[in-house]
Amino acid sequence: MTDDLKSRILDILRRMDPPDGGGDVVSRSLVSEIFVADGKAFFSLTVPAAEAQRFEPFCRRIEAEVAKLDGIAKAIVALTAEKSAGSQAPRNSAPPPSPTPRPAGGAGGAGGAPAAPARPGANKPGIPGIERIVAVASGKGGVGKSTTAVNLALGLAALGLRVGILDADVYGPSIPRLLGLKEKPKSAGGRTIVPLEAFGLKAMSMGLMVDEETPMIWRGPMVMSALTQMLREVEWGPLDVLVVDMPPGTGDAQLTMAQQVPLAGAVIVSTPQDLALIDARKGLAMFRKVDVPVLGIVENMSYFVAPDTGRRYDIFGHGGAKAEAERLGVPFLGEVPIEMAIRESSDAGRPVTASEPDGPHAAAYKHIAAKVLQQIEEAAPRSAAPRIVFD
Ligand SMILES: Nc1ncnc2c1ncn2[C@@H]1O[C@H](COP(=O)(O)OP(=O)(O)OP(=O)(O)O)[C@@H](O)[C@H]1O
């Protein structure tokens, strides 16, 4: 069914005359992979930067035509402007990134080596200056996904990497609170945004761009454009890893990320309860469907250690995520106890990996970070992203 819809979409695209008169966009290989889910079609067109404006109305026409197909309720076509070879460096591009430092416990891998040809996401335009993008996701809310994302980012930074964190949870952004960020990011020349910095991380969140009180009602296409902007119009500078805190669930925003961004992989956060695991499985299935490697599962709020006796209590039936990971054939990345210090430090904007770097919780997150890095190397050896320009 999905394949049939994809070929009908391609037929439509073949019949439409693009504004530059250069022949149909399919034959010219300007169309990305087409992703169809829940009656929505997502794909992008890559055009030369100079043509981007002319192609905008064409994209809207494509959306209207594709939405007429039986089985498609809505189409979302993103325009990506690619810099042609030999032209000048883009104004918002970063200097070429330096080789990835080899972490303790890392798998080595292809540091500096050319791209493996069939790398996942290799056909999606990269973000200049960003080596790898890792999504932190969960099938349902409240499992500690954002807390894990922040502490994972800090764990990666502690391993010597240059790390950024992007809060893609446009519905309930929590990174500003977790990192104690209050000021609004500044714009550079009115065109790009300078990310904030906290505990050595570059940070950007939709929550920094709007007042906390502002209700955020985002429709699918708005989510897509907000995310695209936060990825491509923020001056991330050279980063080894950008950690993306995804909104919970498997909706438009996740599909957008998977469709638009060459993700090196996804980390799934789950609590040990069965219900959360069912949701985690859905998240896992979604990333697999869009060919994003699942780097592994983190079990959060895994057990409780009584402060007075030091005795460990598996209050939620600890171990569920580990068994599930084994069953699903994905790595188990580690477990984090339910711990007042983790909650209080998060709520005070001083995440535990930064505020108690030598403590046991920081050690747990650093261990998870090292495993994530090892999995990234195995799933997607480092490669240079294509250069992108927006003008
Ligand atoms: N290991 C832990 N021990 C104790 N409290 C934790 C732990 N992990 C997260 N929390 C707390 O649980 C609450 C939810 O965490 P967080 O906001 O990270 O979850 P989330 O999955 O991102 O939620 P949402 O989807 O609603 O954004 C927060 O108050 C956080 O401090």
UniProtKB/TrEMBL annotation:
InterPro entries: FSCA_dom_sf, MIP18-like, Mrp-like_CS, Mrp/NBP35_ATP-bd, NUBPL-like, P-loop_NTPase, YlxH/NBP35. PROSITE patterns: MRP (PS01215). Residues 84-124 are annotated as: Disordered. The keyword Nucleotide-binding applies. It comes from the Bacteria. Residues 7-74 form the MIP18 family-like domain. SUPFAM superfamilies: Fe-S cluster assembly (FSCA) domain-like (SSF117916), P-loop containing nucleoside triphosphate hydrolases (SSF52540). ATP binds at residues 139-146. Residues 113-124 have a biased composition (Low complexity). Keywords: ATP-binding, Hydrolase, Iron, Iron-sulfur, Metal-binding, Nucleotide-binding. One of its GO terms (molecular function) is ATP binding. Residues 93-102 have a biased composition (Pro residues). HAMAP family: Mrp_NBP35 (MF_02040). Binds and transfers iron-sulfur (Fe-S) clusters to target apoproteins. Can hydrolyze ATP. Homodimer. Belongs to the Mrp/NBP35 ATP-binding proteins family. In the N-terminal section; belongs to the MIP18 family. This is Iron-sulfur cluster carrier protein. It comes from Jiella sonneratiae.
